[in-house]
Amino acid sequence: MAALAVLSTSSYYFTKCEFGVHSKKPLIPQKREILIQSPNHYGNRRRRRRIEVSKVTSEDGFVIVEDDLQALLAILPQDLRDNLLNEPRKSELLEVVLDLGRLPEARFLGVSGGKYLRNSEVSLKELEEAQNAVGEFGGDNRAGIEGTLHRISAIRSRKGSIVGLTCRVGRAVSGHVDMVLDLLQYQESILFLGRPGVGKTTVMREMARVLADELHKRVVIVDTSNEIGGDGDIPHAAIGGARRMQVPKPSLQHKVMIEAVENHTPEVIIVDEIGTEAEALACRSIAERGVMLIGTAHGERLENIIKNHTLSDLIGGVETVTLGDDEARARRSQKSILERKAPATFPFLIEMRERHYWVTHRTERSVDMLLHGKTPFVEIRRRDDQFQVLIERWQPYDGQGI
C-alpha cells in the first residue's frame, strides 16, 4: 500500500491567494522598481542600482520574478524589440533565435514550435551588432548580460564567425524548493537529472538561496557559465547570501570545485552540469570531506548514469564480479554479474520528469536493485490542483532495467 504525504506550501513560496491564481485570466505583469544594495570594491561603502522587476503569477502558482527583460531586448534589432514589447505573451517568452539567413523566431514557455517575428531574414550586420552589444563569449560559446540571468549562446561557422544566436530569458522562479524541502534536513547530497529546459538550474538557484538565507549554511556556487548567479562580478540577488565562484574555462570546473572546499570552508557546494570524469572525481573528493553537494548531471533517468562510464562514479560505480558456482546457483544468476563497487557520492537522486513531477531515489538501494534485475521502489513527488506537494512513497519504479 503506497504511503501518501502532503506538504503544505507556505505563503513564502506560494502567493496564489494574494495574486489570484485560481482565475484563468492571462498573465498580467506587475512592474515596480526596487533598489539593490551591493558592496563595491572599496570595502564598506555600498552602491545602489535601480532595476525594473516584473512579477508575474502563473496558473501553476509560481511567482516569476523577471529581472529586466528590457536588457535582453536591447541587444535585438529595433523592429524585433518593438514586436516583442507588443507581444501579449512576452511574460512567457523563453528565448529568441537569430540564425543567419533565416527568419527570427521567438519561443514561449509550454508551447511547441515558435513564432516568426518578421518576414525578412536575419542579416550578418544584425548578428554583428548583437554580438557587440553582448560582448565577449566564453570558451563554451556563452555570454551573459551583467546584473541579469539572461544567457546568450552562439553558433559559429567553421571559420569561427558567429552565424546564430540563442537569446534565452533568465528568470528567478520561487516555489520549486518546497518539492525537496523535507530532504534538506538530512543534509545529504542530492543529484538532479532531467532533460534541458525542465528547470534544473532554476532549482539550483532557489536551493542556494534557501540553504544560505533560511537554513544559514555556508553555501558556495561553482558557476561555470554564470547561469546560476547571473553575469557580472556581483551575483544576482536570486541566490541570496550564497557565495559564487566563477570558472574561467569550462575545462577547469573540477579544479574550482576543489579550490572552493580547500579555501572557503563551505558546508554546501552547488554545481551545475557535471559532465566529465574529472568533475565526477572532484564530487567524490568533496563528499568524502563531509561537504553537502547539490548538483545536476547529463541524463534523464538513473539508468543513463549507471550505463555512463564517465559519470557512474556519482552513483557508486559499477564493476563486474565473478561468482562461484554455488553462489551463482543460490542467486539463480549468471556467474558474471554487475555490482556497485563503492558508496554513492549522492545519496539522493531525483529525476525531474516534468516541472511538477519528480521521481526520488535512495541512490544505493535503487542502483543495487536495478543491477540485480529487480524493480526498486521510489518516491513520486508532484503537485495537485491546489498547488500542494504530494509525496507518494513506495511506488514501483517505471524505468528500464540494466
Automatic annotation (TrEMBL):
**Residue spans crossing the bilayer:** none
The AAA+ ATPase domain sits at 186-343
The answer on whether this UniProt entry bears the keyword Lipid biosynthesis reads no
In terms of InterPro entries, this protein maps to: AAA+_ATPase, P-loop_NTPase, Spore_III_AA_AAA+_ATPase
Q: Which UniProt keywords apply?
A: ATP-binding, Nucleotide-binding
Q: What Pfam families has UniProt attached to this entry?
A: Spore_III_AA
One example of the protein's molecular function in GO is: ATP binding
| Alphabetized PANTHER family for the sequence | EXPRESSED PROTEIN (PTHR20953:SF13), KINASE-RELATED (PTHR20953)
Listed name of the protein = AAA+ ATPase domain-containing protein
Source organism (scientific name): Stephania yunnanensis
